[in-house]
Amino acid sequence: MTKIPKPPQSAAETRAILKRLERQHPGADTELHYTTPYELLVATILSAQCTDERVNQVTPALFKRYPDAKALAGATTGDLEPQIRSTGFFRAKSKSLLGMATAVWEKHGGEIPATMEALTALPGVGRKTANVVLGHALGVPGLPVDRHVLRVSNRIGIAKGDDPEIVELQLCAAMPKAKWTVTSDTLILHGRRICKPTPLCDKCAVRDECLYYSRVVSKGSRFEGKKAARYRPRRRSGPRREAQKMTREHFEKLVEDALRDIPKRFRKEMRNVAVVVEDEPSRELLDEMEMEPGDTLFGLYQGTPLPERSWAFGNNLPDRISIYQKPTEEACESDDEIRDCVAETVIHEFGHYFGMSEDEIEEIEERFWRGESVEED
User: What is the pTM of this model?
Assistant: First the structure.
């Protein structure tokens, strides 16, 4: 059995810290909208690599058309993909949803099972997703660990490690079983609102207890970040690609295919911006950007955004968008998903080239996946 590392903070300190965080985020709960365990399971599968807000925009029509597992099991990928396209990775998600619904109908009579073992045996359902459904919809204590929980718990010192299952075990050992689900919800909200990659330490209720603040922030080593980074949390469960490494030639062909799909306004700028395939980001780059445990860097724009340029002195750096093969391969399950990931990454990075805000880039991505025009009027 793997030895579980001991967190810096004691169990008593962890409980006291969570009590203060619960006061700062009263009523913490999942932000996904649902009325049944089935709806929450579908919404949670859709939320992978997607915001809860966007999922909540998609699910009302989806649940109206497919109100239960039996109805969803009768759909096809052709039926489903257009409805969930804007959530990203829609091909893989449609297969997971159909596989899950079929298994629920055939093996469980249409009822969502209420055990970790049975849930994780369903296609597309990993431990985190299972814990979300168990804790919120089935009344079974569960502590989902996502990138926010990983970041916040490691920073404060109530957990130690970048393996979600290890962090789950550490937090469960410190907290009463009845508090497991609200502990996760509280840490997630704290990560979204306060303890972001660039933390708002002056607003944190547990700043005095936080090891990251005392060891890093208070000493003046604040993270400034690079907005031009395209990264997402690494998946740690579910079906994986074959372990054999893809050839560079094949990966570059997938990149070429993806570039043909990006909006015309971005393709036109490729004469000014080089798209380069690299193996993976250097350790120095990841350290410089202070990437969080479990996060994956898919691509990076390097250059001077157009609105920030001084035409008297020109561009400070040659414009290039790096696409990193290894992390993209590891996060994707098929060639189609790699193409989708690369296309979304390039769109994101071109947005930084044009000096767009994160909200503007997200709107373009959403319109692109819905099949709507994103060209300038």
Answer: 0.62
